[in-house]
Design brief:
By secondary structure, the protein is mainly alpha-helical. It has one domain. The chain is elongated and about 60 Å long.
Amino acid sequence: MERITIEQASIDALAEKAGGYFSVPSKESIEYTELLYDICRQFGIHYYSASSKEREFVEEVTRVTWATQREAESGVKLNIHPAFSA
């Protein structure tokens, strides 16, 4: 039988309080989130208080910008379809 340390028990208690464990976000996930917030700042939108229309807008701009950046970095042409166009 494996013994649980006080530290492990404390972590388990905190995780249970928070509704479960979480995984550390990947570097790519962090970069994507930073891009999303950069775009929010660019358009003067506060994501968590934005309307659903504003959120959809910045999410789409972020998605297309992210894909375009990945395309430029890799040199591989991607089939990027924006949900809207100007």
